[in-house]
């Protein structure tokens, strides 16, 4: 990890730069795959599965027998853990349900909103080196609470054509309707446009590699909505001299093992802590099974020493981390001043992995500084709010002249006339 001591403010832009994801360089390749799936449906998806996932499939859908067989392959301990996580995610997201309220903006003019679930949603769940069954819960549970009628899941199969059993168990538990063996760009294209097997959806959720990210960006230009812009995962630990260097190092490494393009950052006011964390990171790294991946991520990672907590907060809000862990003596006060972050973990006993799995909050979060403008996935991500209004004779008499005046001044006489004919009828009564 790079050590940076007391950087000046004009160095922050370069210092806080993420590992670059040049997805636009992939667009030509990705567009070819999307167009082929759009034109040829299942045939193209099956061909791309053979090419990219090295698996020869006869069908894309996962059968009921496969789901039951998969469930029997995972331990009772893991099932219990998944059930606990699902319960907490359900509780947290159910509490976000929108309650519309009728507002009479003036006598006879009533306006309100109704929340309606997106009817068809697609969930992309990465397989590969780390099959993310936890992401199934993070996406399918709020989709179910929101009232989405069709929840479609695509995930890349193993070379033997199987899906990780924990993904199958979590999907059934969370209420997924259909599961398909499809990964990468071809899965995104299939959900965006529909094939003979895979239904077209209205919004696609879920993380993926740079090709998946590029595919989501392209299909979202005109054909389907996506959850948010995404990039490599990241964590910042904001710490003072009271922090435990063992905990801080563990938190940095838990993020670094996600992928070689992940980023872990420590911002601290204590040089002693920074030095202790550096030593501890090296020690713990050697014990990780994924140490090769974590080592590459640490090349993008930094230990930053600043002069005081004021500067630490300014730097943090400028970075806008996906995950922020605050390990300071007065962490509640520090947290009050955070305005840009995806998800915040308070105190020495709140590791980022709690939010990744089982505390109840959602782990699908904005990366690459998008936390300045985007929220993480929540119940709202799966609903639309439709506005309603009702105007009585009294309301039209009161509000009508203002509408006529505004429409006339915008030179939209048709708009004005839609009010005028109603006022004429009301005045005749």
Description:
This protein is of the alpha/beta class and 429 residues long. The chain is 45% helix and 17% strand. The chain has helices spanning 12-15, 27-40, 42-52, 64-71, 76-94, 133-146, 165-174, 184-193, 210-219, 245-256, 271-285, 291-298, 309-319, 331-336, 352-357, 393-409, 413-428, and strands at residues 2-5, 103-106, 109-117, 120-124, 150-155, 178-181, 203-205, 225-226, 234-239, 263-268, 302-305, 323-327, 343-346, 383-391. A six-stranded parallel beta sheet has the order 1-11-10-9-12-13, sandwiched between helices. A five-stranded parallel beta sheet has the order 6-5-4-7-8, with helices on both faces. Strands 2-3-14 form a three-stranded antiparallel beta sheet. Strand 5, helix 7 and strand 6 (178-181) form a beta-alpha-beta unit. Helix 2 packs across helix 3, helix 2 packs across helix 9 (210-219) and helix 8 (184-193) packs parallel to helix 9. The N and C termini lie far apart (80 Å). The relative contact order is 0.14. The model has no long low-confidence stretch (mean pLDDT 95).
Low-confidence stretches: none
Identify the overall geometry.
globular
How is the main sheet built?
6 strands, parallel
Spatial strand order of the main sheet: 1-11-10-9-12-13
Question: How many beta-strand runs?
Answer: 14
Beta-strand percentage range: 15-25%
What's the end-to-end separation, in Å?
A: 80 Å
Q: Work out the helicity level.
A: 40-55%
Rg from Cα = 25 Å
Structural class based on helices, strands and sheet pairing: alpha/beta
């Amino acid at each position: 990890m790079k050590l940076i001591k007391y950087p000046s403010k004009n160095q922050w832009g370069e210092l806080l730069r993420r590992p670059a994801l040049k997805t636009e360089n992939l667009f030509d390749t990705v567009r070819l795959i999307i167009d082929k799936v759009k034109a040829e449906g299942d045939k193209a998806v099956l061909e791309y599965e053979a090419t990219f996932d090295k698996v020869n499939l006869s069908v894309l859908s996962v059968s009921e027998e496969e789901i039951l067989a998969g469930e029997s392959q995972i331990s009772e301990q893991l099932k219990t853990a998944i059930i606990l996580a699902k319960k907490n995610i359900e509780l947290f997201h159910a509490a976000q349900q929108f309650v519309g309220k009728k507002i009479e903006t003036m006598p006879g003019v009533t306006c309100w909103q109704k929340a309606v679930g997106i009817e068809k949603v697609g969930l992309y769940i990465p397989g590969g080196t780390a099959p993310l069954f936890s992401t199934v819960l993070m996406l399918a549970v709020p989709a179910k609470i929101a009232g989405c009628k069709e929840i479609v899941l695509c995930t890349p199969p193993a070379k033997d054509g199987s899906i990780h059993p924990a993904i199958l168990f979590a999907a059934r538990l969370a209420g997924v309707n259909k599961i398909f063996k499809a990964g990468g760009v071809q899965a995104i294209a299939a959900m965006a446009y529909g094939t003979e097997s895979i239904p077209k959806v209205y919004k696609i959720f879920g993380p993926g590699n740079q090709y998946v990210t590029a595919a989501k960006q392209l299909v979202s230009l005109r054909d389907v909505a996506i959850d948010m812009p995404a990039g490599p995962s990241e964590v910042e630990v904001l710490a003072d001299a009271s922090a435990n260097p063992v905990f801080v190092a563990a938190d940095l490494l838990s993020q670094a093992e996600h992928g070689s393009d992940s980023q872990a950052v420590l911002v601290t006011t204590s040089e002693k802590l920074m030095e202790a964390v550096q030593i501890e990171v090296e020690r713990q790294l050697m014990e990780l099974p994924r140490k090769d991946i974590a080592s590459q991520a640490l090349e993008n990672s930094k230990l930053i020493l600043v002069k005081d907590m004021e500067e630490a907060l300014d730097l943090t809000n400028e970075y806008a981390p996906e995950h922020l862990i605050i390990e300071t003596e007065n962490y509640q006060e520090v947290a009050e001043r955070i305005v840009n972050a995806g998800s915040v973990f308070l105190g020495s006993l709140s590791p980022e992995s709690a939010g990744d799995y089982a505390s109840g909050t959602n782990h699908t979060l904005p990366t690459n500084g998008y936390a300045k403008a985007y929220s993480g996935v929540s119940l709202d991500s799966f609903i639309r709010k439709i506005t309603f209004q009702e105007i009585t004779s009294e309301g039209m008499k009161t509000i009508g002249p203002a509408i006529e005046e505004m429409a006339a001044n915008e030179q939209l006489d048709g708009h004005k006339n839609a009010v005028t004919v109603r006022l004429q009828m009301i005045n005749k009564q």
